[in-house]
Design goal:
Blueprint: H1 7-15, H2 18-62, H3 74-97, H4 102-122, H5 129-145, H6 153-165, H7 171-192
Length: 193
């Protein structure tokens, strides 16, 4: 959809894309775990879960392996997944191997689990990664800082609306994404953390 026809949907979709959640969430949880040293670990986690995947998706876009950084076509997501997964797996291994704070390692492990579930679904059906990451991030934030943060749940719905408005996903794809993010990511984070 042209940006002029759905300006607010584009702003919401781009502003709350998955990498931005990880750029915020990983250092925040690191800070919560161990102040400045923990925030540094969070930045390392963000490098492997947000920065490197963004670079991988950008290279693929420039080489025309897929259309844009959101990798909208289901088939293209299967092509992009190995590079993104390799980055997240490497980051997870480094964080565990270097004994990073448990909140940071649990976050990245939970993200990896969510990505694996989304990848399996993607073999058969397109699902919203935006919704999965937003719902998972909010559930993890509520787990760490208190359930009062669930008042931000309408933000997850707003992000889902933006993806539907831009004709990137159906209501079902947004709902399943949110269920996977919150239903897989948060329980695994709690288990590991």
């Amino acid at each position: 959809m042209p940006r002029g026809e759905a300006r607010w949907a584009w702003l919401i979709s781009d502003g709350f894309e998955p990498r931005n959640w990880m750029l915020l969430l990983a250092p925040l949880l690191g800070w919560h775990a161990d102040a400045w040293p923990g925030a540094g670990w969070g930045l390392l986690a963000a490098a492997f879960t947000a920065v490197l995947p963004t670079l991988i998706l950008g290279v693929g876009e420039r080489r025309r392996y897929w259309g844009d950084r959101h990798v909208r076509r289901r088939q293209d997501r299967l092509v992009a997944a190995p590079g993104v997964m390799a980055s997240v797996i490497t980051g997870t291994a480094l964080l565990y191997g270097l004994d990073a704070p448990i909140e940071v390692t649990a976050l990245v492990a939970a993200m990896l689990a969510v990505l694996l579930v989304l990848l399996v679904i993607t073999f058969f059906w397109k699902v919203s990664v935006h919704s999965a990451v937003a719902a998972g991030a909010l559930a993890i934030l509520a787990s760490v800082f208190g359930t009062w943060l669930l008042v931000l749940s309408p933000l997850v719905a707003l992000i889902g609306w933006s993806r539907i408005r831009l004709r990137c996903h159906t209501i079902g794809q947004v709902a399943v994404g949110a269920l996977v993010g919150a239903g897989v990511g948060a329980p695994l984070f709690d288990l590991l953390g």
